[in-house]
């Protein structure tokens, strides 16, 4: 019983203690929870779906009293604990103490409190309106944006993914000046005359591309990206030799455009070949051969000085014939003949050079003797090859005349294109040839006399029969292989077998044989078994390229070798596209040379993302504009004028019929606009301003004729686009120059006034932000060689002070009355004059010269500082009403101007009062100064809602120190 009594006593004590300690215990838990850092909060380990599933598995809940008994057995009073918890959870936040009425301590405090309350309400209203406008703008602009497309573009920009076709509606239209990022399709753009623009309005991507990371180069062409390494990146021209070659090429392009402007002949292919011969880390011999072959194909002349001289080939000479889709038209047949003849001619001239070089290198084996002439060179060459045992596998089969292998001599005369010399050699040994082959003289003469190297029908039949009989009936290994080869070349015998059997030869010999046998005839004038034309040559080269020159080919210089063969066959677009992944520097300039003469079919930038595409007639075409624009990434930042010369070449294709010609022209204009905006070389590209206000033409203006423009409409367009962009980006000096060049002089002053206004609103003692000066034009550039153009200009002065810029502009415009009267708004001119006075006011104030400060303030006529004010509320109210009419640039400074006025008045009164002597004049001056401060205070009260809060507080504080309110 005693034990039970003690246990009951302890339990009652425990219950009593727990009941008393419960509130403190739970309060401690609450305090601890409030102090817990966010990082200390427990983290959910399950997702929402997992939690939902576990809740469903719990089943229907029910009341369980086991917890109640467990707590009671442990000595916890659950009723008291529940009551404490309910009080704790139901506790409300302490209400904010009611605002006690503030006892006003004076008029000043009461006005300040009223102002603060009204101003806060106005600010809250503006903030709410701004939030609503921003939410509405976000909803409109980002409605329907394809974020996946934007992410894909970012990956492509940094070379992380290969380019893909992106739907224009989901992507951003990357046109400078009107970014399409997040553009709402529900809000159409205004369509009026003022919105007319040069360039392709529907362009889905930039023409010139973005400048990539230095040292690497990513491809934006889908078909090219498949041929470069997996990361889509290949080396950019960082090598010194490549940079020099790039510089040399740029110089040639600049010279080309200079010659075009002066109507002079410029052998562009010849000059490009000279650049390609420069030392390089790679073997470029095949590229040199390709350029020289094109010289023969185009018949380019390096002797003609002007375009009217004999032999001069004008730009785009072959465009009409080459681009003719009708295969059997006279122009199309003629251009194919020219390609065949030009390619064969080059292979012959190149072999002739090799032949002479071999003879000179081996004079003893050649044993020429006497005066060297073409025939003696060929004979010497045959002797050298005979000495090296390179004439064929069996020299005993070779027939001789006077100690020379006669058929070999004739063959190599034909191989080197010396047809007349071959005829002369046969005539000089006519007797011997009649004994060997009575009919050959007749065959050779008919072949040499024909300008198209075509035999008459009867002679053609006769030579074919003789060749077939000799090949079929003669014993094996009894015929001179060179004799049979001469028959094959002259009579196009056994046209299905186009190889040099039993004759030591190389690739160049095989190529020559193809072009020597190919003819472009009317399909109705030749037999099917005799048909072998340029299209067949192309098919042979395509087959060889796919079989031997594909990816992983072990042939040395496989890409350039295949390129040379494609150029010979007239596969110009395919050649450029195949070379581009391996050597874009040379590929670009081959495309320029071909396009200059009209031998390149170009595509529209919006048709495809590939470099090489095909027309509906399956004709290959190159994205020439994109290729040129992207090439300028390597140098346009440092050499913007070079980029202008390259981009101007896009307009070579403006002569094309239909929409494609217009599209190429717009492509060029878009590229030039993007160039100006990206590089910011406005003075260099668009023009500069002399000290007298006249303009210095820029690189684009100097090339207007090359981009098929007569007037300055495009120049004004590109200048205005650049000006608006510069203004939006806060580049004042750029915007001022560009608006001046576009002859919008009022806008020049508006931009300058805005910059000057912002500079004046900085706090006293702080240095205003400096302007970003213009990029100076390059006075050594060839476009500005004239000494008269090298005088000081806006871009060369490097102005970064908004006050100095405003002074210079005002001086410039005031010196020419025609501008101020006809083209400049009086409001802008007057605003600039006032702002310059305010700048002088601030300068005097910061220098501590109070009287001059008040004089400048009086000159602005913005504040009631006139003697007639003197508390005249009507006069002061009229001044306050004028505040509504002030331009924004001036109104922005008004609050600061009032602070400056009160500060100047206070310091001026203090200075006058501490001079140590007073007279009537001094007292009156003090009184007048105090009146000015009082009137400004009243003026500020009338427009207090339009002033920043701290301006009002500063005026009130300084005014109290001045005791302005006690002036009677």
From TrEMBL:
**Key words of the record:** Membrane, mRNA transport, Nuclear pore complex, Nucleus, Protein transport, Translocation, Transport
Question: Which InterPro entries has this protein been placed in?
Answer: Nucleoporin_int_Nup93/Nic96
Where it sits in the cell: the answer is:
Nucleus envelope; Nucleus, Nuclear pore complex
Q: Which GO terms describe its molecular function?
A: structural constituent of nuclear pore
- GO BP annotation list: poly(A)+ mRNA export from nucleus; protein import into nucleus
Entry annotated with the keyword Protein transport: yes
Nucleus: present as a keyword of the record?
A: yes
The primary location reported for this protein is nucleus
Family assignment from sequence similarity: Belongs to the nucleoporin interacting component (NIC) family.
What protein is this chain from? Nuclear pore protein
UniProt source species = Pseudocercospora fuligena
